């Protein structure tokens, strides 16, 4: 059997239905194998970075492994941003790259390059993959491919890369003699397996029973572990309120009576007050980065014990002093914890009542601004108009944080973000991948003018494939997140974000790509969101000076965000002693 045929047939047998990529000479054998394999389709993007993002969107919505493919040299390197995105956000993807013939490859020779477009992509990819392999022996194909597919989804998920020289792609293998991969082999990358004892689960439940003001942080690990149902059962039985990180925002419906918003540097003010005033924090599948805790680690949740559950032992205790660190798959933890937790709703009722009062006080209610629509009102309208199983995909910049602060998702909806990499240009290609993961779901991309231009060519990919994608463009004609940062820390010198930056005529661009265009001058213009059966670009004018608020400054505790509240009002929201530095305006 031809190696390229074997690779594609193996992916098809693993449930992969679509492979994203851009054609190139070094992957022509793989392309031809896709063409001849029923049940699997090649989706041609216009840039390899977009293919990588599309594979990530496909994986996150389908629950299967996402696959992207690129030719050697520049094609493979163009994948790198998307490879890093899936690595930092722990998304299982396989990246296939073509390589020059093995007899043209330099290997250990001290040459810069031997073959045309020869590039050591494996060395480039290793720091941002669970493993990257150059395939040099056709008879190792079955072993290497099976091991990589297993590794991508085992333990803490993540991407893998297989670099396949052209002469290996066209070689024949004897499946009867080729070695296979035994799945009981251990996986690298810090996965902890069965190291946790039941006593640690019981210990966490004991801390809950001693608590009066517990809170759960719902991280992206909930989705990665397919633990949404287990989390819902546990939360309902325990009666404990919860907050969400950026990557955990769609794990539970936002109208749940125990939901208290998005937390962190750009979090909802009421969510951060919930964390700051708690006496016990249960962290489920979150890395607890500075984006969640603020830069002032010593001031984070000063009165709380911390229980941290994560499958990767390297994440436990990496930044904060933790009372109990549990190395365990979060779904397994929640299923075991459910057996031992008892409902303590009455004990937590005063805490929930206090949280609800703070939430009602600071729940954002948008309105019109002098020079454009308020993005929070736009997001509320989009949520009202969207389908019950809508997939929202946000880009990076102010649009991402407006979405995180203002979106409200129901039980069957999804919202996808580029978290750790935070790459502009993510939304449109990831939305395309999400569509191919499940054709029955409606998909909306929320973008800024800067991010849309990063991969704007993929508007044509959507048209070519008849994808009824909705793109909501929040256009402030600036790089707003950088502008806001520059005004805060650089005396308003907005070099590169306003000065030296401009946006094109998006209506003409939309029409050039064959998209329907809607100028949103009033919120009612967004009613068409619920009626789209073809690709539509909704352009929403936003004032250039519209900020993401609240926002945390460096070295302030997360409960003290900009714009700073009156100090008496601030004190009234603190059940624990305020940080001394926060008592000063």
Question: What would you note in describing this structure?
Answer:
Helices cover 35% and strands 15% of the residues. It has 23 helices and 18 strands. It folds into three domains: 3-169, 3-Layer(aba) Sandwich (Rossmann fold); 198-362, Rossmann fold (3-Layer(aba) Sandwich), CATH 3.40.50.1220; 375-541, Thiamin diphosphate (ThDP)-binding fold, Pyr/PP domains (Rossmann fold, 3-Layer(aba) Sandwich). Helix 2 (28-35) links the parallel strand 1 and strand 2. The protein is globular and about 75 Å long. The longest helix has 18 residues, at 345-362. The chain has a six-stranded parallel beta sheet with strand order 2-1-3-4-6-5, sandwiched between helices. A six-stranded parallel beta sheet has the order 9-8-7-10-11-12, sandwiched between helices. Helix 9 (198-209) crosses helix 14.
